[in-house]
Each structure stands twice: as C-alpha cells, then as structure tokens.
Design goal:
The complex is a heterodimer of chains A (140) and B (412).
Chain A lengths: L2 H13 L4 H14 L13 E3 L4 E9 L2 E8 L2 H14 L4 H6 L3 H5 L14 H19 L1
Antiparallel strand pairs in A: 1-2, 2-3
Helix pairs in contact in A: 1-3, 2-3, 3-6
Chain B lengths: L11 H5 L8 E2 L2 E2 L1 E2 L10 H14 L9 H20 L8 E4 L2 H12 L8 E5 L8 H10 L2 E5 L9 H7 L4 E7 L11 H10 L3 E5 L11 H4 L3 E5 L10 E5 L1 H6 L10 E4 L4 E3 L13 H17 L1 H20 L4 E4 L8 E6 L4 H10 L2 E2 L1 E3 L4 H7 L4 E5 L6 H18 L1
Helix pairs in contact in B: 2-10, 3-10, 11-14, 12-14
Classes of the chains: A alpha+beta (140), B alpha/beta (412).
C-alpha cells in the first residue's frame, strides 16, 4: 500500500469513533499493544528530545524500502508513534520525503503535532524525513 | 464535599464573578484552572485599568510636557508607590520595574560580575527554577566564581545543616526562592538571609511563587534583592519588579543602555540617571506597570491572610482526596507549603495524565516545571502539578479528582 492508502485506511478506522474518548482509548490500545522498538535501539543516540515525553527512532534499509521502529515513554505519544510508523515504515525514501500529515488533522489528533506541543512528535517526523533523505542519497 | 462552606474566610462565588475567563468552557467542559503557579488569571478590575490606559491616557512617560504624558507618568509612579507600600520598602526608587522575574535576576547577575573574583563562591538552592540557576552559572563562567548548591531532602525541603556548612568568608552571594515553583515548599528565608549576612554575603530571594500567597515585608526580612512577576498575582505578563537595597542599586552598573537611564550624554562621557531610572532604559511597559499596581490593590482588597487561610483549606482537601487514589505519590511534603501539589501515578507518564484531563477541561501543568534538578533528584521525568488560587472552589477540586480517576482508568 502507498502512504496515502494507509492514511486513508487510518482515517476510515477513526471515523468509527463518536468522541474524543473513544479515539484516545484506541490510541492508548495501540500504544500498549505494539512492541515498537528493540531494547538495544532505545539508546541515547536514537533519542529525540521532546520536552516532556521521550521518543526513540531507529531506521533500517530493506532493499529500497526504509523500515522504522520507534517508541515513547508516554502511552498517548506512543499511540501516535504507532500510527506514524504504520504510515511511513516499509516505504521508499522518496515517498516518505513527499508525504504530508494532513490525515492527523482528519483523525482529530492535530493538537499533538503542534510545534509547541512538548511531546517530541514533530521532531520525530522531521527525523523520519531526515533518514529518508539520507537513505535516498545512498540509493541514488 | 465538604462541610466547610460555612467556615470559609472568603465569598468565593462573588470573587469568581471578577474573573471573566472562569466562565468559559474548554473542550466542552467548564474550565477548571489549576495552573496558577504558571500564571494567574486577571480580574475585571485589572482588565479595566488596561483598557482605561489605552482608551484615555496612553502616552510616553517622564519626558513629555503635555498633559497626557503627565497623567501617565503620575499613574506609573503611583503604581511604583503601591508596590513599595505592599512590600514595605523604605524608598520607592528601590523598586525597579522590569519585564518580570527572569529580567530582574539577570539584571542583578549581570551587575554582580564586577563584584566577583576567581575562587569566590555563590550559593544557589537545589529547589530553584532554571531562571534562578542559569544566570548564576553564566556569571560563574564569566568570573571564575564557584557555584555551590544547597541540597534538598526527600520531603522537598532545603537541607539547612548543609547550607550552614556551605557558608564561609568565600561566599559572596546566595540565591534562593521564597517558594519552590515545582513543589510549593516555603523556604526558611529569614534564617537563610540572617546566616548569609553573617558571613558578609548578599542575598537575592526569588519571590515569584511567594507573591500570590505571602505578603513579604522586605524591610523586616532585611533581604538585599527580592524579585516578583506581576502575572503571578493577577497582573499582566511582561512586567515585574526588582527590589534592591539602595546601597546595592547604587553600586551595580546599569544593565541596558538607552533613553531614560541617562542624565547627560556626550560622545566623551555619559552620566547615568538617578535610581530607579538608571535601570529602566527605554520606554517601559507603562500600561503593565500601572496594571501591576492595580493587581496589588485587588489582591489586598481580598486580603493575604484570607487568601492563605482559604488556599490551605483547598490544599488539605485536595491532598487528602488525591492520596485516596491508589498509586498516587506526592512530591514535596514539607509542612510549610503553598497550595501546590506535584504528583505522579505509579506506572503512568505525567504527560498522558495532563493530556486526558485537558480533554475534561482541567488545566494542569505537566513536565519538569523548569526545575530539572528536582526531577533528577527524585529520578522522575516530571510530575503533574495542580496549583490552586483563591478563586478555585472545592467543587473544582472534586472535578479535578474525578478527572484524574478517569485518566487513570483509561491509561492503566
């Protein structure tokens, strides 16, 4: 699936929820259920410093696709991390670089991607794109 | 809730009518504002003063010959006098208007660069806000002075035995807050000031978190510098004060050059203006200063004894209710505390709790509260902080507790 198809699928899933509480309960479930990153990658150099919640990101190149794993110490942040990983992982670097995050707005989580929100997610997306740029150069 | 209503020292429902913002809803719920340690809300009486200033007598002060300028100057200087009286300061020129506590601290730190030599010691406390740590670190880097830290105890109090041992003839300055922003601990500043003076050092007390709860008598305290931000005591942001003893303010060099702070200027030599203008370069926050005075009037009309008595009741009630929730740990359990509760729930990140309760209209602060050394001491990433004001109610405490319970259920 392309990034856009995955995003549409996520928007579909979230459209089933009536209110914020159901959305958050779902995100918390996502955050709890997914082992997102191997412990050995939860190290200082993979740490993105958000002011309050920490986010770790690790990238591997599989063929011409980039695979991400990530984690956070806060469960709601981790839920959104899970959504972003589902969107961006196993995609070609060019697609990652070109993708936007408007779907986050559509699923009612826009506030978490505000640059002033101290949860590390904005920096995480920037980091994913940086990896994509770095690996794209490698593939070229 | 509470068979306390008949004993309350304040008519809270009437007081709440003064604060238009308390009527609003957030995320569909009535706002429960419990982030008062970050900034307090503004009563209509202060808002009116701001509107009146810009509607009727907005003008630059101290220089103009026209009536408007004179009017604005009179109001600004009368605000300075109100602040002087409130803190029982000997001379109004010992009150310097600044942009707030951080500006005040930096002004003093900058001035002290000439007072310090390599090997001198300056002491800060482990309970400080970053704004009362970083300027002194910078000062030490610049001068070669050594920064010493008064350690804290598990209860969130200063280790006073350790403090007394740190003091010596090498000590040149001590910096400590009156009340800790992260934990609410009221520090024994009388003892700290006296001991500091015994070794011949100067002391700055950061009163940012004390000012909303405690009316400090600065002459009785005999403190050298005391700093406050207006926005913590129902005033606007962007204005605050530096109190300094006259002898110190005369000794310290100006912090910023510009208009207003000069007596005469030529390219050969500039002579500085008298206090307080020496430290008030440029056009100040005129409206802010006047509104600062109005905020002091407002707080005094309610009465600091009433405020303290009522807030202590809120604190006791909220603490008791919170501790009934399984897994809650409160940080900062000093007997002398303002109405601040810093806490965590076992196994839950404070950011998650803050996010959920915000959805329920409850405004709390989460994170390290600009006091990372305290968080490092407790080995936690941060806390959830509820900070109460005299306009909060017992019903709001109930809503807060219910929201915390809800968040806990969702997150566990």
């Amino acid at each position: 699936m392309t990034i856009q198809e995955i995003q549409e699928e996520i928007v579909d899933e979230f459209s089933m929820f009536d209110d914020w509480m159901q959305r958050y309960e779902y995100m918390i479930e996502l955050g709890k259920s997914l082992p997102l990153i191997e412990e050995k990658y939860k190290v200082e150099e993979n740490l993105i410093k958000g002011c309050q919640s920490k986010v770790w990101v690790h990238a591997d190149l599989n063929g011409d696709k980039l695979a991400f794993s990530a984690d956070s110490d806060a469960i709601i942040t981790k839920g959104i991390v899970a959504i972003l990983i589902r969107t961006y992982s196993n995609q070609h670097p060019t697609a990652i670089i070109e993708a936007d995050n408007k779907f986050i707005d559509e699923i009612g989580l826009k506030e978490h991607l505000s640059p002033t929100r101290a949860n590390g997610l904005v920096s995480m997306i920037k980091q994913l794109k940086m990896y994509a740029i770095a690996y794209q150069t490698q593939l070229d | 809730m509470k068979a306390v209503a008949n004993k309350l020292p304040l008519d809270i429902e009437t007081i709440r009518l003064d604060f238009p913002i308390l009527k609003r809803k957030v995320n569909g719920y009535p706002l429960v504002y419990l982030d008062n340690a970050a900034t307090s809300q503004t009563p209509q009486q202060v808002i009116n003063v701001i509107v009146d200033y810009y509607s009727n007598y907005n003008a630059n002060i101290h220089r103009g010959v026209h009536s408007l300028s004179q009017e604005a100057t009179d109001k600004y200087e009368s605000a300075r006098k109100k602040i002087q009286q409130h803190f029982n300061v000997a001379n109004s020129h010992e009150i310097i208007f600044t942009s707030g506590t951080t500006h005040s601290i930096n002004l003093v730190a900058n001035g002290f660069a000439q007072e310090l030599e390599k090997g001198d010691e300056v002491i800060v406390s482990a309970l400080e806000h970053h704004s009362n740590i970083v300027p002194w670190q910078m000062l030490c880097e610049k001068t070669g002075a050594i920064l010493k830290v008064i350690p804290m105890t598990q209860e969130g109090e200063l280790d006073m035995d350790a403090f007394h041992k740190l003091l010596s003839t090498k000590t040149k300055m001590v910096f400590v807050n009156h009340v800790s922003n992260a934990l609410g601990t009221v520090n024994p500043i009388e003892e700290i000031i006296e001991a500091t003076h015994k070794v011949g050092a100067a002391i700055l007390v950061d009163g940012a978190q004390a000012a909303p709860h405690i009316k400090a008598d600065l002459q009785a305290l005999d403190v050298d510098f005391y700093v406050v931000s207006a926005h913590k005591i129902c005033g606007p942001t962007g204005v605050g004060m530096l109190y300094g003893k006259e002898k110190w303010l005369n000794k310290l060099p100006p912090y910023q050059g510009g208009g207003e702070m000069i007596a005469t200027v030529s390219f050969e030599k500039t002579t500085y203006a008298e206090l307080p203008h020496k430290f008030e370069a440029g056009t100040p926050n005129i409206c802010g200063g006047i509104a600062f005075g109005a905020a002091i009037d407002y707080m005094n009309s309610i009465g600091f004894e009433n405020i303290a008595a009522y807030e202590q009741q809120l604190l006791e009630y909220a603490t008791k209710e919170l501790l009934e929730i399984e897994g809650v740990k409160i940080y900062g359990t000093s007997k002398e505390k303002t109405a601040v509760i810093s806490f965590n729930i076992e196994g839950i990140h404070p950011y998650d709790i803050g996010t959920i309760v915000d959805k329920l209209g409850i405004a709390l602060r989460t994170g390290h509260h600009c006091a990372q050394p305290i968080m490092d001491f407790y080995k936690i990433p941060g806390t959830v902080r509820a900070s109460f004001s005299f306009y909060n109610t017992f019903e709001e405490v109930d809503l807060f507790i219910a929201a915390i319970k809800k968040a806990k259920t969702m997150l566990q």
